[in-house]
């Protein structure tokens, strides 16, 4: 009962916080424009297409985005291991809170935006005695994001970031690294996108072999249905130990709902900093709130 009350209270607080962010970032001007330009024609998910945008529309859309909002997916999920026996220690909960703050106006060259980002990912043993947090990973960063506009069409984005990630522990459990990332996302159309990302940096002595387990980059494919009611994302992260994989399914139960029912399967190494060199395979379900237009990883 105590665990249930703790989980319920945290779940309510999580929803309250993230729902406030969602209320700020539900601008769907580009989505509405795409629907109006397509008219009554049948949706073709395979066709490379995206709405025509002139410079005034692009600038207006960027300026209307709130200074503070969601960055990556925000979710609360709980689940069980696939690769070992299910116990009150191997089952857990996982949540992610990801936000960004625009630091300057959108009048930078090429519509580039400078943002401060922060993502926190936590692993919580809610089914174990006293419900401890196994690991909490803190990931602040400074991000430059530039949209790719070709022939008045919004084709994607290029992102460059300088980041730090650590778990806030000391002694033998300390894990941290400082790194830079370069990524590009291509929007095949309003429903299908692809992202490639590479990173490199300096790691601490307690996790000096981190790159063996997290590699140097990842590729992502992302699909969402018409009206944004459902979606699927696949993240592939090669490393010297094999291929780390993350598969996500999302379903919005009602067209007016802001939250998605969310399923996430991860397998491989490096999901958490503390246990980056231990193989795991987990299936978790819960709820997710997504940033507007596109997912970023």
Q: What can you tell me about this protein's structure?
A:
The chain is α+β, with helices and mostly antiparallel strands. Helix content is 16%, strand content 46%. It has helices spanning 2-24, 29-38, 55-64, 210-214; strands at residues 68-70, 74-81, 92-102, 113-124, 133-150, 153-166, 176-187, 192-203, 217-224, 230-239, 242-251, 260-268, 280-289. It has a twelve-stranded antiparallel beta barrel with strand order 2-3-4-5-6-7-8-9-10-11-12-13. The protein is globular, with a radius of gyration of 20 Å. Mean pLDDT is 84; it is low at 22-27.
Structural class computed from helices and strand pairing:
alpha+beta
How many helices in DSSP terms?
Answer: 4
Q: Proportion of β residues?
A: over 45%
Reading the helices and strands in chain order gives: HHHEEEEEEEEHEEEEE
Topology record:
Layout: H1 2-24, H2 29-38, H3 55-64, E1 68-70, E2 74-81, E3 92-102, E4 113-124, E5 133-150, E6 153-166, E7 176-187, E8 192-203, H4 210-214, E9 217-224, E10 230-239, E11 242-251, E12 260-268, E13 280-289
Antiparallel strand pairs: 1-3, 2-3, 2-13, 3-4, 4-5, 5-6, 6-7, 7-8, 8-9, 9-10, 10-11, 11-12, 12-13
């Amino acid at each position: 009962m105590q665990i249930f009350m703790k989980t319920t209270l945290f779940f309510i607080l999580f929803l309250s916080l993230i729902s406030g962010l969602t209320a700020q970032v539900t601008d769907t001007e580009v989505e509405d424009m795409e629907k109006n330009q397509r008219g009554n024609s049948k949706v073709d998910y395979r066709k490379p297409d995206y709405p025509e945008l002139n410079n005034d529309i692009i600038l207006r859309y960027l300026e209307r985005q709130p200074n503070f909002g969601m960055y990556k997916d925000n979710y609360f999920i709980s689940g069980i291991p696939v690769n070992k026996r299910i116990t009150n220690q191997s089952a857990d909960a996982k949540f992610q809170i990801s936000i960004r703050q625009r630091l300057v106006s959108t009048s930078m060259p090429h519509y580039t935006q400078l943002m401060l980002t922060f993502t926190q990912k936590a692993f919580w043993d809610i089914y174990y005695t006293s419900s401890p947090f196994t690991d909490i990973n803190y990931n602040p960063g400074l991000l430059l994001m530039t949209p790719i506009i070709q022939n008045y069409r919004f084709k994607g984005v290029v992102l460059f970031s300088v980041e730090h990630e650590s778990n806030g522990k000391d002694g033998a459990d300390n894990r941290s690294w400082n790194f830079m990332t370069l990524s590009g996302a291509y929007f095949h159309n309003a429903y299908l996108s692809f992202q490639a990302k590479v990173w490199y940096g300096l790691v601490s002595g307690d996790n000096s072999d981190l790159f063996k387990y997290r590699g140097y980059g990842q590729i992502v494919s992302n699909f969402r249905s018409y009206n944004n009611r459902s979606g699927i994302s696949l993240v592939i992260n090669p490393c010297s130990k094999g291929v780390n994989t993350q598969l996500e399914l999302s379903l919005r139960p009602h067209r007016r709902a802001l939250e998605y029912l969310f399923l996430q399967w991860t397998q491989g190494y490096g999901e958490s900093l503390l246990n980056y060199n231990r193989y795991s395979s987990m299936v978790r379900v819960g709820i997710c709130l997504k940033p507007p237009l596109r997912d970023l990883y």
